[in-house]
Amino acid sequence: GTADLVVVFITTSLAFCMVDMFDTLGTLYGACARGNMLLPNGEVPNMDKAMLADAIATTTGAICGTSTVTTFVESSAGVAEGGRTGLAAMATAALFFIAMFLSPIASLIPTAATAAALIYVGVLMINWMDPSVALPSFLTMAMMPFTYNISYGIAFGLISYVLIRIFTGKIREVKVGTWVITILFLLMLFLTH
Description:
Elements: H1 2-34, H2 47-64, H3 75-80, H4 86-100, H5 103-106, H6 111-124, H7 131-147, H8 150-167, H9 176-191
């Protein structure tokens, strides 16, 4: 009925929101870490402004009918080379404008050619020596192909992260945002199955 449709609509919207948000968070952290731009406490500078800019870009892109306009992990290569200002972004925009007319040539490069580099960058972002980080990271990666769903992978990773923190006596390390998102994921899993 209508109630089921509303639940499906809300959970689907939530799943897409989660995917985009975590994709952006991971990319921002990775790019800032690569360019030695993290704050002394390990946080990304001006995180709120960066997330707002990404949200506006994503929404505007969706309205215009383009594929998702968001941050990409490939940016870390540019940041590592010194591209950290608005000038670098403007130069990139100009080159993208030129690339619009060369897109048929770019489309000759298969996704498989770039996927390996992205996976490697992702692996470098994980502290594999800490089991409380490595296990949720592994579960996230493993559950995505098994469930054919990116958001389910993120859900399993977050839920396992919170459970590990609870049972190892480090519950205080779990931030409020993580609690909220984990509870929403649990509700999504219980309400849609």
